Amino acid sequence: MTMALAVLAAGPAWHVAAAPPSAPLIGINYFAGWWTGPGDKWKEPWNTSVDWRPLYPGRVPLIGQYTTEQSTMDGDIVAASSAGVDFFSILWYDNYPCGHRAPGSGHLNDGLSLFMSSKEAHRMQFMIEWCIALPLFGVHSDMEWQRMVRDDWLPAFKHQSYLRVGGALVFKVHSGPAFKVNSSASDAVVSARLDFLRRLVRNAGLGEMIIGAGSTITDTSDPAEWWGFSYNFTNDYAGVLHDDPKWAGRVLPWRNESAFVREWRRKQARAAAQANPRRTWTRQKGTTRQRRK
Ligand SMILES: *[C@@H]1O[C@H](CO)[C@@H](O)[C@H](O)[C@H]1NC(C)=O
Ligand SMILES: *[C@@H]1O[C@H](CO)[C@@H](O)[C@H](O)[C@H]1NC(C)=O
Ligand SMILES: *[C@@H]1O[C@H](CO)[C@@H](O)[C@H](O)[C@H]1NC(C)=O
Ligand SMILES: *[C@@H]1O[C@H](CO)[C@@H](O)[C@H](O)[C@H]1NC(C)=O
Asked: Nearest bound ligand to CA 213?
């Protein structure tokens, strides 16, 4: 699992049947990037012949080093749930049509299947964070989108531990701006895809959905205006500094990373308080403003 923390607070905007929880739910992103063989994340990103475990022995998990193994997932669930974590937001990657868009990348989705098959699954909840990561992991077509919804996500939504808030299933698009770019920068395409998802879930008798989207912490564009869809929640990711070869082998203090996050959260707040004509990076001719809140 990764250290990124996601907090879903129960807000008054959720109009669903059951009462929202009385306390914030605490979640952690689950990234299943740890296998043996090409593409595994035990190697330095900038030099994949170097295994970084001897450089940072204190960061090698005792529970299990490989997220391709059921015992690792079982241990992760027990550790997280007993420390007060309510859910994993499991990163899921579109590997269609070949099953492996990058070396070993089929293993990335083991996180979802191993959670679902875990005998410990009753201890906590999980949700899918569809990890659109361009240029490698976008969706090629509407047909491929529909296939993911039907064959991969719908079975997960039926699992008894799938996260519901106020009765609604929670789902996140990892990057709202990337999804829009990958949908030919068309709000209509983004909406058609997400509306299809809602409709299929509703027709399957699974109820309503809370659909959110994220963006990098340094993106200060206005989600309501430029991300192409009226998402139920938006948030940030990748608030990590110095992912850089020159820091290899050096353990920076955690406060160093949190200083970076605090700095960008201040910038996010300032940007949100301002009128937004200067925020243009996903802007395209013909985008509608009707979704602006
Ligand atoms: C989520 O957003 C949709 C579309 O804007 C809206 O119809 C729905 O009521 C929202 N769901 C919740 C739980 O707020
Ligand atoms: C990668 O690391 C290996 C082993 O330390 C080293 O021999 C090689 O020169 C490195 N390659 C690059 C491109 O830095
Ligand atoms: C979306 O992503 C896929 C795969 O990453 C890519 O092949 C395709 O060209 C992208 N489509 C658009 C419109 O950007
Ligand atoms: C984090 O530490 C590095 C190395 O000391 C420094 O260059 C950088 O400015 C620090 N960043 C923050 C946000 O404190």
From this structure: 1
Pair 174, 129: CB distance under 8 Å? yes
Q: Point out the ligand 3 atom lying closest to the alpha carbon of residue 137.
A: 5
Q: Are 156 and 149 in contact (CB under 8 A)?
A: no
| CB-based burial, 109-119: b 16+ in 10 Å, e otherwise | bbbbbbbbebe
Of the listed ligands, the closest to the CA of 263 is: 4
What's the total number of domains in the chain?
1
| CA 171 distance to own-chain centroid | 9
Ligand 3 center to 125 CA (angstroms):
31
Is residue 141 lining ligand 3, measured as CB closer than 6 Å?
Answer: no
Of 169, 265, 174, 269, the residue nearest 214 (C-alpha): 174
Instruction: Write down the pTM of the prediction.
Output: 0.87
- For residue range 231-288, what is the model confidence (pLDDT) as tens digits? 999 998 877 776 778 888 888 888 888 898 999 999 988 988 885 544 444 433 333 3
The Å distance, Cα 69 to ligand 1 centre, comes to 37
- Cβ of residue 135 lying under 6 Å from some atom of ligand 3: yes
* Residue with CA closest to ligand 3 atom 8: 140
Is the Cβ atom of 257 under 6 angstroms away from ligand 4?
no
> Which domain covers residue 8, as residue numbers?
2-292
Q: What is the pLDDT of residues 120-146, one digit of tens each?
A: 999 999 999 999 999 999 999 999 999
26 is written with which tokens?
Answer: 């605490």
| Residue of 151, 168, 166, 170 whose CA lies nearest to 27 | 170
